[in-house]
């Protein structure tokens, strides 16, 4: 009984956001004290297809940016993690990778902005990408560090002594071994970029209008329907990821 | 070898943002004739920084201006959010780094104009170059003077507005007719009044401060420390004496205007404010405000000001920016903008300079149903004081009201 | 794969170099050597620090929010893992706990505002049910002085994650078997939970819990939407200071950014020390 109550409570707790966001997205002229919208309209959703409000462009931009961050960070992290294991004082390098955890993304963005401007990257996708990599690359390095510190190095050497070329050792031995962890890292770094608002908002100077930036704009306009639509668009891809690969979502740095 | 292939997309991304056009010097740009400017500006992109806090304004820009300049000049107008000090900081950092700007066109007034001129970030004077500048009502001090600073051709007037109070006539039968009556009203209706801690709220505070002094003349000309200290002191006293009758007992204030509009729409507060006298019409038309919402200007008046368009000194496409501004000043674009169903922003054109047909169109605009008519506000318009008053009010409102520190130096 | 020589220096340049350069720039900005109104060295803003309670207050407020959010989340997660094992293992639950992991902080903040504000959904429902007679009768749950809304949002995001983490450790450490063992040795269930399970879970999860704590300390999205203009959390405090109308306040904003960033960096170094020591101790 207690168990059922608990389960029911948690279902309610976690389903409510989707219910309320859904209602907000289609509700029209919904004001206090009405408990349900007086009228329903698909206008915000139609606007999505018409593309007049840039939601679809925002979705595309967010997808592109998060995917680029995920791929670059995962590949980079794989390489860096391997280099860290071979370094003279790996502990130092691991400590270095924890540094971005100390700084809130928005503060990090504020600090590096003068240099982003000097690199001619202010307000560009490239600038935001660089900023996000600053967070995602160390994160990926830490996640993938556990792979290299285990037996992987030994396996690699074993493969080499058995006559594999470095390329073969990578393709036939290391990548298959690392596959589950690489998948987790891809998902995690994707989400890191996908969820980011503070850093993107500062570095984009309002120009790279990703979905999170749009949610904030619509909230600022007190435009609840469009903010809700953008929110739902933000939640959708991670939800699909969740269904596809649950375990990859749990991050354990 | 793997790494280079992976770095390639990154590098191309970085490089894509680096394609700066070889720009002319500011003097060379301004020395061109209008046909030369037209030729140089056509087919260029223009990057515009503007306040994006109002859906109707955003829609006017994206659904009307953007396609129009594309159709007329092949200009790709890209609009990005940015206002006030954010613009100044970005442009100043670009200037320091000695590089062309990411922005071409900025929507500014008052203290932003002042600060941009201080760091020499504006291109000009350029206004006289625009053919449509001949139609501007530059004899009107509310248009040719921006917070006591002559615009001197460094920014082009775009629209003209006046602060007003918005209330729901179904809930409030007798709103306070003057700033003097406001405190008594607030005490009689606790929890119904608040001041937004942003641009519009500061304009409200300025108007209130001038009303307390009873002498608008005091606030003309350069910033006067003694005048400010005396009357802002009075203002904080009145507010702090009554703040426990404010919304949420005056312990917090809305940070943006839209949330205050939302509080008003939901009936949580009795008043909201707008720097745009026709906003009540467009918000009622959009069904954001109840149909019983009305706007008015309390005695002895509120601040009337204009907002402007400036060109960035380091702009990559200054000619195209001029084409866009010239279009925004055209009778057609100004007429559209003044329609309360579109935006409701008052024109900066001198109607006498227009053709009779154009004049008729302006006169036949769907009238303001819920906002006071401009003719009736003649005696109720106050000039903007020096930008320093705004800057100081902003800081002191935070210190003495929001944070509640004791007044004293 | 051959170790690539320039990889690590490049990595350090990006991950350490750029933020440190930023920190240096902020330091120079705070003494007005750089910035839009650069005028040459002045220690004015450093000296004024003593008269400006804002930064200290923001730090205290952030500390309160972080302690309350993470503390509450830990208690909830421990409670679930230690007292509801059967439920946690049954069908909808493990999957259910993953749901908050797909919610961006900004969306959670927007949702909670729509749910809990005085004109929000709960207030409307309570009005319709006659529980409250007016807007004002509904308690202030967001943009409130104590930061209830901010704490709630963080708990909603952190506690399911911690529950999953504790559960993973619980299973990895075979605590269920240990539980049986201790009970055959005569220990009560309560003793096992208090003396054995809880300390073990906490010790092993400590680094992650501390990282959540630091992340909450620097939270931005949630307090931006659910907080008040005063008091503000650190990130919001610095960001708004940077966006003020008055450019002359910029050095003070740089100063605040420099101090907060330095403080957090020291905090993470201390944390790393602790983690390393506990690793050495536990072997």
Architecture overview:
The complex is a heterotrimer of chains A (253), B (409) and C (283). Chain A has 253 residues and is mostly helical. In chain A, 77% of the residues lie in helices and 2% in strands. Chain A has a two-stranded antiparallel sheet with strand order 1-2. The longest helix of chain A is centred in the middle third of the chain and has 37 residues. Chain B is 42% helix and 13% strand. Chain B has 16 helices and eleven strands. In chain B, helix 3 packs across helix 13, helix 5 packs parallel to helix 6 and helix 9 packs across helix 10. Chain C is mainly alpha-helical. Chain C has a domain of 195 residues: Orthogonal Bundle (MetI-like fold). Chain C is globular. Chain C is built from 13 helices and no strands. Chains A and B meet through helix 3, helix 5 and helix 6 of A and helix 1, helix 4, strand 2, helix 5 and helix 11 of B. Chain A: It is a multi-pass membrane protein. Chain A: Belongs to the binding-protein-dependent transport system permease family. Chain A: This is Putative spermidine/putrescine transport system permease protein.
In short:
The complex is a heterotrimer of chains A (253), B (409) and C (283). Chain A is built from 10 helices and 2 strands, in the order αββααααααααα. Chain A has 253 residues and is mainly α.
The residue fraction in helices of chain C comes out at: over 70%
Low-confidence stretches of chain C: none
State the helicity of chain A in percent bands: over 70%
Q: Biggest sheet of chain C: strands, sense, closure?
A: none
Q: What top-tier CATH class of the domain at 52-246 in chain C fits best?
A: Mainly Alpha
Structural category of chain A:
mainly alpha
Number of helices of chain A: 10
Distance between the termini of chain C: 31 Å
Give the overall shape of chain A.
Answer: globular
| Beta-strand percent range of chain A | under 5%
> Span between N and C termini of chain A?
36 Å
What is the N-to-C order of secondary-structure elements of chain A (H for helix, E for strand)? HEEHHHHHHHHH
The succession of helices and strands of chain C, N to C, reads HHHHHHHHHHHHH
Spatial strand arrangement across the major sheet of chain A: 1-2
């Amino acid at each position: 009984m207690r168990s059922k109550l608990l389960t029911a409570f948690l279902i309610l707790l976690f389903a409510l956001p989707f219910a309320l966001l859904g209602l907000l997205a289609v509700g029209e002229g919904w004001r206090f004290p009405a408990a349900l919208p007086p009228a329903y309209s698909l206008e915000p959703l139609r606007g999505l297809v018409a593309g007049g409000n840039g939601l679809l462009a925002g979705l595309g931009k967010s997808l592109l940016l998060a995917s680029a961050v995920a791929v670059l960070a995962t590949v980079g992290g794989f390489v860096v993690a391997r280099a860290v294991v071979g370094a003279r004082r790996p502990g130092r390098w691991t400590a270095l990778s924890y540094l971005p955890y100390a700084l809130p993304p928005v503060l990090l963005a504020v600090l590096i902005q003068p240099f982003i401007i000097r690199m001619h990257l202010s307000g560009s996708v490239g600038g935001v990408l660089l900023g996000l990599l600053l967070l995602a690359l160390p994160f990926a390095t830490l996640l993938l560090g556990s792979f290299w510190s285990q037996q992987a190095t030994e396996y690699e050497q074993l493969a080499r002594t058995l006559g594999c070329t470095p390329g073969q050792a990578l393709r036939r031995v290391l990548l298959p071994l690392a596959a589950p962890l690489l998948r987790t890292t891809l998902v995690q770094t994707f989400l890191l970029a996908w969820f980011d608002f503070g850093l993107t908002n500062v570095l984009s100077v309002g120009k790279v209008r990703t979905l999170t930036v749009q949610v904030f704009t619509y909230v600022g306009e007190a435009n609840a329907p469009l903010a809700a639509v953008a929110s739902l668009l933000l939640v959708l891809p991670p939800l699909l990821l969740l269904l596809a690969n649950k375990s990859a979502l749990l991050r354990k740095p | 070898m793997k790494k280079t292939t992976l770095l390639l997309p990154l590098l191309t991304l970085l490089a894509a943002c680096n394609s700066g056009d070889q720009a002319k010097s500011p003097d060379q740009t301004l020395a061109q004739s209008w046909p030369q400017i037209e030729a140089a500006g056509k087919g260029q992109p223009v990057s515009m920084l503007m306040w994006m806090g109002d859906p109707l304004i955003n829609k006017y820009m994206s659904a009307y201006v953007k396609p129009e300049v594309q159709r007329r000049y092949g200009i790709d107008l890209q609009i990005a959010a940015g206002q006030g000090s954010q613009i100044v900081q970005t442009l100043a950092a670009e200037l320091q780094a000695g590089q062309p700007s990411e922005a071409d066109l900025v929507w500014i007034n008052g203290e932003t104009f002042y600060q941009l001129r201080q760091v020499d970030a504006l291109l000009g004077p350029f206004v006289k170059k625009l053919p449509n500048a001949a139609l501007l009502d530059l004899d009107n001090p509310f248009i040719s003077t921006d917070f006591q600073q002559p615009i001197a051709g460094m920014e082009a007037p775009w629209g003209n507005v006046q602060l007003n109070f918005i209330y729901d006539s179904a809930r409030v039968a007798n709103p306070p007719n003057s700033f003097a009556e406001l405190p008594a009203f607030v005490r009689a209706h606790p929890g119904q009044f608040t001041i937004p801690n942003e641009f519009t709220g500061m304009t409200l505070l300025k108007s209130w401060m001038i009303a307390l002094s009873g002498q608008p003349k005091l606030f003309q000309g350069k910033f006067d420390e003694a005048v400010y200290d005396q009357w802002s002191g009075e203002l904080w006293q009145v507010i702090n004496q009554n703040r426990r009758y404010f919304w949420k007992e005056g312990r917090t204030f809305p940070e943006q205007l839209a949330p205050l509009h939302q509080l008003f729409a939901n009936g949580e507060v009795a008043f909201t404010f707008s720097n745009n006298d026709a906003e009540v019409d467009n918000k009622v038309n959009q069904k954001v405000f109840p149909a019983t919402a009305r706007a008015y200007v309390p005695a002895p008046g509120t601040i009337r000001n204009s907002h402007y368009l400036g060109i960035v000194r380091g702009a990559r496409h200054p000619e195209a920016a001029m084409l866009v501004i010239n279009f925004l000043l055209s009778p057609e674009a100004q007429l559209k903008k003044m329609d309360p169903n579109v935006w409701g922003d008052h024109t900066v054109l001198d109607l006498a300079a227009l053709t009779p047909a154009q004049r008729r169109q302006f006169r036949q605009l769907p009238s303001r149903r819920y906002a006071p008519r401009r003719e009736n506000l003649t005696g109720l318009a106050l000039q903007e004081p020096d930008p320093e008053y705004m800057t100081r009010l902003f800081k002191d409102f935070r210190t003495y009201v929001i944070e509640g520190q004791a007044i004293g130096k | 794969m051959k170790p690539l020589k320039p990889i690590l220096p490049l990595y350090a340049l990006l991950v350490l170099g750029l933020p440190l350069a930023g920190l240096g720039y902020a330091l120079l900005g705070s003494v007005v050597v750089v910035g839009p109104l650069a005028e040459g060295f002045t220690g004015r803003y450093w000296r004024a620090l003593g008269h400006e309670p804002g930064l200290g207050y923001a730090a205290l407020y952030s500390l309160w929010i972080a302690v309350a959010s993470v503390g509450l989340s830990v208690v909830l997660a421990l409670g679930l893992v230690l007292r509801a094992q059967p439920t946690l293992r049954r069908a909808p639950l493990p999957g259910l706990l993953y749901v908050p992991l797909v919610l961006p902080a900004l969306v959670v903040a927007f949702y909670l505002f729509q749910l809990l504000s005085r004109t929000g959904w709960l207030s409307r429902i309570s009005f319709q049910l006659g529980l409250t007679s007016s807007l004002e009768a509904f308690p202030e749950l967001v943009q409130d002085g104590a930061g209830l809304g901010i704490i709630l949002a963080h708990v909603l995001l952190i506690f399911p994650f911690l529950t999953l983490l504790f559960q993973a450790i619980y299973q990895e450490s075979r605590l269920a078997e240990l539980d049986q063992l201790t009970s055959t040795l005569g220990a009560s269930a309560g003793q096992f939970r208090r003396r054995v399970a809880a300390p073990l879970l906490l010790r092993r999860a400590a680094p992650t819990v501390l990282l959540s704590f630091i992340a909450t300390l620097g939270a931005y999205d949630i307090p931006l939407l659910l907080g008040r203009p005063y008091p503000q959390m650190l990130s919001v405090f610095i960001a708004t200071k940077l966006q003020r109308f008055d450019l002359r306040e910029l050095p003070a904003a740089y100063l605040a950014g420099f101090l907060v960033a330095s403080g957090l960096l020291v905090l993470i170094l201390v944390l790393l020390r602790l983690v390393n020591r506990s690793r050495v101790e536990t072997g």
